[in-house]
Amino acid sequence: MSGMTIGVDIGGTKVAAGLVDAAGRITHKSRVPMVSTGDGAAGLSCVESAIQAIFAEVPTARAAVTGIGICAPGPLDPTTGVILNPPNVQCWRDYPLAAEVERIFAVPARVDNDANAACLAEARWGAGAGYRNVFFAILGTGIGTGIVFEGKIYHGRTGSAAEGGHVTIDYQGPRCGCGKHGCIEAYASGPNIARRTRERLSSGEPSAILQLAGSVDAVRTEHVGEAFRAGDPLATQILTETSHLLTIWLGTIVDILEPDVMVIGGGVAELMSSFFPAMSAGLKEWAINQRAGEIPLVLARYGSDAGIAGAAALCA
Amino acid sequence: MSGMTIGVDIGGTKVAAGLVDAAGRITHKSRVPMVSTGDGAAGLSCVESAIQAIFAEVPTARAAVTGIGICAPGPLDPTTGVILNPPNVQCWRDYPLAAEVERIFAVPARVDNDANAACLAEARWGAGAGYRNVFFAILGTGIGTGIVFEGKIYHGRTGSAAEGGHVTIDYQGPRCGCGKHGCIEAYASGPNIARRTRERLSSGEPSAILQLAGSVDAVRTEHVGEAFRAGDPLATQILTETSHLLTIWLGTIVDILEPDVMVIGGGVAELMSSFFPAMSAGLKEWAINQRAGEIPLVLARYGSDAGIAGAAALCA
Lengths: 316, 316
Description:
The structure is a homodimer of 316-residue chains. Chain A has 316 residues and is of the alpha/beta class. Chain A folds into two domains: 4-114, Nucleotidyltransferase, domain 5, CATH 3.30.420; 127-299, Nucleotidyltransferase, domain 5 (2-Layer Sandwich), CATH 3.30.420.40. Helix content of chain A is 40%, strand content 19%. Chain A has helices at 40-57, 61-64, 97-105, 114-125, 185-188, 190-202, 208-213, 221-229, 233-257, 267-272, 276-286, 306-313; strands at 4-10, 14-20, 26-33, 65-71, 76-77, 82-83, 109-112, 133-139, 143-149, 152-153, 261-265, 297-299. In chain A, strands 3-2-1-4-7 form a five-stranded mixed beta sheet. In chain A, strands 10-9-8-11-12 form a five-stranded mixed beta sheet, sandwiched between helices. The A-B interface holds A 133, 147, 149, 154-158, 160-164, 166-172, 178-180, 182, 245, 248, 251-253, 255-260, 285-289, 291, 295 and B 133, 147, 149, 154-158, 160-164, 166-172, 178-180, 182, 245, 248, 251-253, 255-260, 285-289, 291, 295.
């Protein structure tokens, strides 16, 4: 056993950790609750427990692990490994998480946000492997993105680059949770696909979605997906429209970055993957780059383990 | 005399060349007509004449020049120095311009597009000097952009990255010359500012612009600028609206790239520069990045000589 890293994925309510080998395989996992209030040490002890659980299960890993990477809620400073002031993890305010983890485990530790880290995992081990410049998007509750240039995460001036979910595709469009208008997230995140579906159902359009969900208010993206797979016309319309909006957005990404590959992950990505060929073809209309359609548009390797794999990639 | 480069700026109707010193000062210039039809050698001889005119004026430059950079109409391949198939320069089809210039003058030659090259000149010698990551936009007949990361032009997969003028800010907006809808160029290029002004005048709004231009059809951006400086309400409205649309666009740029500086050049930039402080402040609303307003938004050093300086920077 050699060249192993540990990836730690911290959320508001849980800490997941994984042991990851040199090929990006997650060989063991642990999960503990996250304490996000109180003092900084309370949150740190959760991280420590998740890592210790791995070592308890795989005692030989202790000596084989060469680094610990951590996906943490932002804002954070990836250069110093300091967590600044995350709204969902109130126990950490200007908290030197990387330094604390290094102190406890005596191996190098790195911290980054989840989409940046997941992009690095895809670039190194996943659907972006072998490409120089990788654009990654995770379509889920929100839309997070990451950019890897020549094997390194692109951070920008303060670590806040690659917030591609907040690209405005219609400045007169619906207000996004971030305060801007017409962000792609305001149309194509899971909750916003569900919102758009509820609006259509409320206007009286018939659909199997209503039977699946029980009521308009109960409609979630999963119901749209299930109805789509059964051929429901409204679900098909909603997802086709979503694919069109995502194409417009990717046109902007291509015209700015012209990446070598575009990797799409997250629960909504799986739902949308049957539209990827149409989206690639549609870039002819929505990118000035006439070779945009040549850029592979592919599903991510890592699904719900993207945070663990991404965190591990930070130190691999 | 040492460390001099020659910058050559090729347009559809003229070739301009300049001798540029190590501090980015253009010490001598030449200009000859461009022959854009016929065979490749016809176009090449124009480039050669423009360069020879510099050497004729400054004989000592011949030995002091260490490289020749060329801004040429795209599409082109900056890696190989081959001009592919520019619509406005029909004499060059897959033409190895850099290699031909190297053969004639026996110094290294490089080729790139004008906005990329101008970005490099600003990053090296101009308003972007001292910053790591530079975003540059030239607002003129169109909107061209360039990106320099750590001293190098970012080209993307095939050299077609940094087409920021074709970022869509409203996918239901006016059709751009490129075929996409709602590109920032479709609102904020010189001709589109004039178009928006003509539309307002046609609907009967009173303005001094009409007296300055003589007729609605004759309105150009210069008239809007002149009326704005004289306090004309419609001109002020048009330019304020333009600044708002540019702010929305820069919000997207910041949320993707988070550059260290944003440098704006071109004729429209001078017109808009009094709005730069308001645009910086407006980024609070149009970028998710809460520190977007800290990013300097500055006028370019190079005006109409941006092509010459940019070309020279390619080899400096």
